[in-house]
Amino acid sequence: MAGIDPADEIAGLTSKLASIEAVLDPGAMQTEVDSLREQAADPGLWADQDRAQKVHRRLSYLEAELARLDGLNQRLSDTQVLFELAAEGDGDEPTKQEALRDLAALRSEVDQLEVRTLLSGQYDAREALISINAQAGGADARDFAENLMRMYLRWAERHKYPTEVYDVSYAEEAGINSTTFGVNAPYAYGTLRGEQGTHRMVRISKYDNQGRRQTSFAGVDVLPVVEQTDRIDIDEDEIRVDVFRSSGPGGQGVNTTDSAVRITHLPTGIVVSCQNERSQIQNRASAMAVLQAKLLERRRQEEAEEMAALRGDGGRAWGTQIRNYVLYPYQTVKDVRTGQETGNAVAVLDGEIDDFIDAEIRWLRQNGR
């Protein structure tokens, strides 16, 4: 931001951070942290493992957010001191350059934190379920679907968000047909929901012996995790449950018992499966949780379509193709809605997607989504 005095920019960032804190309310966050710490110290908490894990995940998230706010305030102060030292040192260029680097990093981090305040949708605070399905493009599409799975898992790893893979259907030649996994962090759904839609890859095919360019597609669904208050009732006579033996890449057996579970919801035709646990009971419970999330999303979409029809826009969706990944004849990744673009496609596929996610959140908010 050439031409802006560093002291003025630091003052502006300090004011923006204060506005962000007014929305996030660190005082309320600290009160919740104190309550969660008391619950975590209760020896009986682990009698209900699901509740215990939620308590610890929420506690970890809030502690990290509070530390982040404190750290940003301290770093703004420290950067101001660095600029003052550089000025007092009669043009101390190394100190000045260090201060400028710190200021650029702070600018980016405060802007990212500001995006967090835009997550105010009905389900935005929820954890997320991600489903990826290979679409048109044969083996390249299945390979691309696996690339996307790795991209999101690497993104979560970078942010230290726990993940849990519920199911992976490996393709015979390469890649995956589909996968479902959870991102177990507060606001994961609100953060990632803009990723839902069709992703398009253009590259030289690894599976074409003539080395021709191939366009392939993969679909991404992002669902909020269901909570008890959602009241998604599923009658036993509405589902068919099949059990089968878990399998890994190449069809290798990874389990010697029929512990994997596939559930078909007969009224809608929705099919979910889970094979990450060794217990059939645990896999059934996880599959039911995924089914409930899909039914919740179906209900949410039906309600949204009804509201759209009332508004007179015919219930048009906001589009399915969301991002192009081009690896040949040049490298670029571009979001077709926000215009966000980078030439470092390799980094994106390695999980560096924060700029795209932030742009999506702002775009969704601006368009009332």
Task: Compile the SSE list and pairings.
Blueprint: H1 6-24, H2 26-40, H3 49-88, H4 93-116, E1 128-134, H5 138-158, E2 163-170, E3 176-183, H6 188-192, E4 197-204, E5 213-224, E6 239-244, E7 260-265, E8 270-274, H7 280-311, E9 321-326, E10 332-335, E11 341-342, H8 345-349, H9 354-366
Parallel strand pairs: 4-9
Antiparallel strand pairs: 1-3, 1-5, 2-3, 4-5, 6-7, 7-8, 9-10, 10-11
Helix pairs in contact: 1-3, 1-4, 2-3, 3-4
What this model shows, in words?
With 369 residues, the chain is α+β, with helices and mostly antiparallel strands. It has a domain at 6-116: Methane Monooxygenase Hydroxylase, Chain G, domain 1 (Up-down Bundle). The chain has helices at residues 6-24, 26-40, 49-88, 93-116, 138-158, 188-192, 280-311, 345-349, 354-366, and strands at 128-134, 163-170, 176-183, 197-204, 213-224, 239-244, 260-265, 270-274, 321-326, 332-335, 341-342. A hairpin with a 5-residue loop joins strand 10 and strand 11.
